[in-house]
């Protein structure tokens, strides 16, 4: 489970609750009608804005956000170099057995296209097209969350306006003005909380996960094209190492290679 995301959201709500309780009562901020306006309004507006299938895909994507995903680019590089060594020793057809044992469908598809003798330019176009489709799908998921983040404060304001209208109808009862005003404003509070502690963070997290997946697939594309072009496995490893963070690029290299680099 992605504990960092879950803990961050829970701590965000905890900070708000602590701030409320330090100067008042949490029950002053509980109003069922306000919750119904904000939550119900956001759900209905979102459902009216997007097709049902896209909403279901977004729910699935959000559920995956809370699962811990580990992307090890070093492992991918080592795998590609291993495949390149096999292809160099035994020919491209020898990679078919390795492809059948792969769990990653993207890398498996690329290797099988190499085995089939696909032209390098066509192979790149096929894989990059698939990557573009993945980016589009991820963008659609984020668009749903971004819409919910935009709707939340709006329905909070609608609830506030409803409360103010009801309050102005009862100006004769001055003793109830303070209570009615607090109820009117609490809907804006709910909308801001949902937008800034739930929907916006989830959208940003989805974007971060997507960017890492795109980088990994771009690395795989470059590695597969290099294998098809018959490049030396050592050269392939050096080329793919540029996709790693700078702190990892020199990992495992002999010390003498870094000598004299103190002024870099």
Q: How many strand units?
A: 0
User: What is the helix tally?
Assistant: 10
Distance between the termini: 40 Å
The level of helicity is over 70%
Class based on secondary structure composition and strand pairing:
mainly alpha
Any idea what the radius of gyration is? 27 Å
Q: Beta-sheet strand percentage?
A: under 5%
Uncertain residue ranges: 252-264
* Mean pLDDT rating: 86
Shape: elongated
* Main beta sheet: none
Instruction: Report the order of strands and helices.
Output: HHHHHHHHHH
Record the SSE blueprint.
Layout: H1 3-23, H2 32-49, H3 52-65, H4 73-90, H5 95-100, H6 105-115, H7 120-169, H8 177-228, H9 233-241, H10 246-249
Helix pairs in contact: 1-8, 2-7, 2-8, 3-7, 4-8, 4-9, 6-8, 7-8, 8-9
Write structural notes for this entry:
- This protein has 264 residues and is an all-alpha fold.
- It has a domain at 28-71 and 124-248.
- The chain is 77% helix and 0% strand.
- It has 10 helices and no strands.
- The chain has helices spanning 3-23, 32-49, 52-65, 73-90, 95-100, 105-115, 120-169, 177-228, 233-241, 246-249.
- Helix 2 (32-49) packs antiparallel against helix 7 (120-169) and helix 3 (52-65) crosses helix 7.
- The radius of gyration is 27 Å and the shape is elongated.
